[in-house]
Design goal:
Protein name: Peptide chain release factor 3
GO cellular component, one term: cytosol
CATH architecture of the largest domain: 3-Layer(aba) Sandwich
Bound molecules: guanosine-5',3'-tetraphosphate
CATH superfamily of the largest domain: P-loop containing nucleotide triphosphate hydrolases
Low-confidence stretches: 47-62, 67-74
Largest sheet: 8 strands, antiparallel
Distance between the termini: 35 Å
Strand order of the largest sheet: 29-26-28-27-31-32-30-33
GO molecular function, one term: translation release factor activity, codon specific
Keywords: Cytoplasm, GTP-binding, Nucleotide-binding, Protein biosynthesis
Organism: Candidatus Criblamydia sequanensis CRIB-18
CATH topology of the largest domain: Rossmann fold
Number of helices: 13
Radius of gyration: 25 Å
Strand content: 25-35%
């Protein structure tokens, strides 16, 4: 290994690239903010949130996000945490924005799943967890809001296991709950960890005191009743719980569980420290040579490569630009690097690369595997494109989820047709909305999305960014599926419609789940798939 490979290896080892997944309101924004607090990026928490008309969140960009107080677009932030370099991918929590979120997850090497202790595993968490499973992404579980009356911790562990079908291992165990939440028992170090609020509440770091197992001082602090219950539960975990191994965690077979409260900072720092220890650094990724043969791309041994997981138009209103977000998979990136885009068979110079440091766009001179760079995209990129120094291979395609909402969209003013077409092209390139064409009639355009809010955003952005007012007519389809098999023998139901997606894959649109199931029965020699992996 030469010197430049050694420094590349050092940079790779330092990096932790991950996403925080949760159902809305479980505490993802609060936890992200605390990560910024504990890394020293912000002095006090409570400043970067964008909810309820407060100052915009560090990762919020568009005015609509600020108006609505929800984070719609995915972004990435980089900052140091102790000896590590963190790349946190911000995944929109709103359920209509799931597809964007799903794609962002492919750029992560691991995920933190935040669960509200009072609510348990909720719908959106389940869907997001499924994507992690599809891509074998290891998941750490953060059970939040332990400072509030919540569900029984054992019950929560069981729910994670049963609903998500993954083994769970409690890394720590809560000592008391609600207003009696004193701290946690660290099952790895075998010690009591107590937290106390500073006079500034959760806006500043919580003080931590550690005591060894059976310390009389600790027992006195928590009282005999809580101590007895704690010992019983710890015994139960030893006897009935799963074992934990790093390998099984990395393979996505077991999730380490941490109990904490992001708002009060109780358990936050020990969690982040454990996260740095457990979470993997960027590792090998599978790719295919152009003849289909599978290969592995090593972050250190292979020269620069990456792939586009997100496109976003009009990030900078003054320039009407569009940005392609690239996850670096191997090699060192240097500004102005010329790379090959395998899909186009073209060379592209990656000039003006940007990174995000706590919401501020910065120009990058270097970047390493695991990092996310944003490059201005004069239509050189599509979602899923592989770029590399030498070309010749493609990373696995990104999963695509079946749209569930369909509509026709036209410009109110016929004279604005050109701007409409331009806006539609750029916004559908971003991938939140899919443009489908009739299977038989190419000019029959249908817009499709995974959630309703995406249409609202599309109309808003067409008006705001391209000056085009539009008329949206919802279509009666409720679900869809890609069709695998010979289209000549496919039996189409009367109410369903056949279309093709951007890549030319045939799809069927159905007016009900029942109709879809019936169609599946009518076509035993075809496969109807919900996710294109
Ligand atoms: P999200 O990004 O997952 O949607 O959740 P977010 O962090 O915005 O948190 C949702 C609500 O839950 C917020 O309250 C937040 O303060 C609260 N919260 C987060 N973590 C904890 C915790 O550990 N304990 C308690 N008790 N609450 C927590 P809000 O009323 O919606 O907003 P705000 O007025 O507090 O900002």
């Amino acid at each position: 290994m030469n010197d430049s490979q050694k420094s590349l290896q050092e940079a790779v080892k330092q990096r932790r690239t991950f996403a925080i997944i949760s159902h809305p309101d479980a505490g993802k924004t609060t936890l992200t903010e605390k990560l910024l607090l504990y890394s020293g990026m912000i002095a006090t928490a409570g400043m970067v949130k964008g909810r309820k008309g407060r100052k915009a969140a560090a990762s919020d960009w568009m005015s609509m996000e600020q108006e609505r107080g929800i984070s719609i677009t995915s972004s990435a932030m980089q900052f140091p945490y102790k000896d590590a370099i963190i790349n946190v991918l911000d995944t929109p929590g709103h359920e209509d924005f799931s597809e964007d979120t799903y794609r962002t997850l492919t750029a992560a090497d691991c995920a933190i799943m935040v669960i509200d202790a009072a609510k348990g595993v909720e719908k959106q968490t389940r869907k997001l967890f499924e994507v992690c499973r599809l891509r074998n992404i290891p998941v750490l579980t953060f059970i939040n809001k332990m400072d509030m009356p919540g569900r029984d911790p054992l019950e929560l562990m069981n729910e994670v296991e049963n609903v998500l079908q993954i083994h769970s291992y409690a890394m720590n165990w809560p000592i008391g709950t609600g207003k009696d939440f004193h701290g946690v028992y660290d099952r790895v170090k075998n010690e009591y960890v107590f937290f106390s609020k500073t006079s500034h509440g959760g806006s500043q770091k919580a003080a931590i005191a550690r005591y060894p197992a059976n310390s009389p001082e600790a027992i006195e602090k928590i009282g005999e009743d809580i101590q007895e219950k704690l010992l019983q539960e710890l015994d139960l975990l030893e006897i009935a719980g799963n074992p934990f191994s790093l390998e099984e965690f990395l393979e996505g077979k077991v999730t380490p569980v941490f109990f904490a409260s992001a708002l009060t900072n109780f358990g936050v720092e020990p969690f982040f420290d454990a996260f740095i220890d457990l979470a993997p650094c960027p590792h090998k990724r599978f790719a295919n040579l152009l003849d289909g043969k599978e290969i592995e791309i090593d972050p250190v041994e292979n020269p620069f490569s990456g792939y586009v997981f997100k496109l976003q138009a009009n990030m900078d209103r003054r320039h009407r630009d569009s940005m392609a977000f690239i996850r670096i998979c191997s090699g060192r990136f240097e500004r102005d690097l010329t790379v090959k885009n395998v899909r186009l068979g073209k060379e592209v110079r990656l000039s003006r690369p940007h990174g995000m440091v706590a919401g501020e766009r910065t120009t990058l001179d270097y970047a390493y595997p695991g990092d996310i760079i944003g490059v201005i995209n004069p239509s050189h990129f599509a979602i899923g494109d592989t770029i590399s120094l030498n070309g010749g291979f493609k990373f696995k395609p990104l999963p695509q989820f079946q749209p569930e909402i369909f509509a026709r969209l036209i410009s109110k003013d016929i004279g604005k047709r050109k701007s409409f077409d331009k806006g539609v092209l750029q916004l559908t390139n971003e991938g939140a909305i899919q443009l489908l064409r009739g299977y038989e009639r190419e000019d029959d355009l249908i817009f499709a999305a995974v959630g309703k809010l995406q249409f609202e955003v599309m109309q808003y952005r067409l008006k705001d960014e391209y000056g085009v007012e539009t008329i949206l007519t919802p279509l009666p389809y409720e679900c869809s599926a890609w069709i695998k098999g010979d289209m000549k023998t496919f039996v189409k139901l009367t109410n369903s419609t056949l279309v093709v997606d951007k890549q030319g894959n045939p799809m069927a649109l159905f007016t009900s789940q029942w109709e879809k199931q019936y169609c599946i029965k009518q076509n035993p020699n075809h496969e109807l798939v919900d996710v294109l992996v």
